[in-house]
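Progress report, Aim 2. The chain analyzed during this reporting quarter is listed below.
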Amino acid sequence: MSGGTIRTLVAIDSDVDSRSVEHAFPAGSPVQVAGVIEGLDRGWTVLEETSPDLLVVACAGYSERALYLIEASTKQRPDRPVVVLFYGTPDGFLQRAFEMGADDLLTMPTPPEEIEFSLRKVMARRRGTLAGGTTNPMICIVGPKGGTGKTLAASNLAVGIAMGLNPDRTIYDLARVGGSLDPDKVADFVTDHSSGASVLLAPSRPDQAGTVTVEFLRELYAVLRSRYDYVIVDTPPGFTPEVIASIDVSSNLLVVGMLDALSLKDTKLGLETLALMGCDPERIRLVLNRADASVGIKHSEAEAILGRKPDVFVPSDREIPRATTAGQPIVVAAGRSDAARAFHALAELYVQDEVAADTSSSSNGNGSQKRRRRLLARGRRT
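Predicted structure tokens for the chain:
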């Protein structure tokens, strides 16, 4: 690709009028049609010979030839986007096209300017992914067992995200839409909280969870980190493939446990698992909830069991269940409470990390001004 020109190869299935496809591209567009293939059987050969920046496949009805070409192109050059122009009702073909590697599917007829926008969008997204783009902090909250207060930590850290919200759309709905992700598309599925934070909530039913794949999450996280200053991910208990994928792409990890003997043992196992996964201990923080002396375990004893000092101890507070019932985090409902102060201290640790990173970048001549955007967390419902 030279300058702003996008060299595009258009492959047209036999049941599509080639003239209608050629007229679909606006004149004077950076999307330059470098070649048109009538009949998809020759598509693979021409792809190898021309190596375009973008492949557009036009078809009508369920087409195995189109699926084969999409898959072959993706395997040949993973960095090259594939967009499908579909004449008719996609039905089952839509999902299959995305499974084969298509970045977007446009149902025809679509105005030329919208086609140009879509093609430029998928190119920009691929360039941003390959170049690293803007990658803001992502904090993955993990724990081997449920009931330790991970969601409590997530919602207070993000100033009240997964609490008291009843969204019309969840991450399940976003996954079902298919196609490539971009910040504007994701924003349509995000629910805003009165605190100024935003949330993309988990599926409302357990049977919907299978739709949210590891591959989808990896793409989603990249988009979220380009849009929000902080991304906070609340994960289910244990180390499922989805949790492991979230850990792998996170800049920071927050392990949450409680100050009791059983939870401390589970938390130690969780820390050991992260070590076996090769996670840098410098990017792991540790929080213990219900950390009162009345449980019979001293803070120093907890440190000895865990093999490291917890970063924050969050005391029990009767205001926490009240705030949860009211749909507010404790940092909003009772901002001067000891529990709220503990969560503020936790948030300050991450802010200090960011300031230190910015200072380091500036000293190397790589500093940049950041736009202040809202925090976003992926909520977990149990």
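Confidence is low (pLDDT under 50) at residues 129-133, 367-373. Residues 32 and 315 are 62 Å apart (CA to CA). These observations will guide the mutagenesis work planned for the next reporting period.
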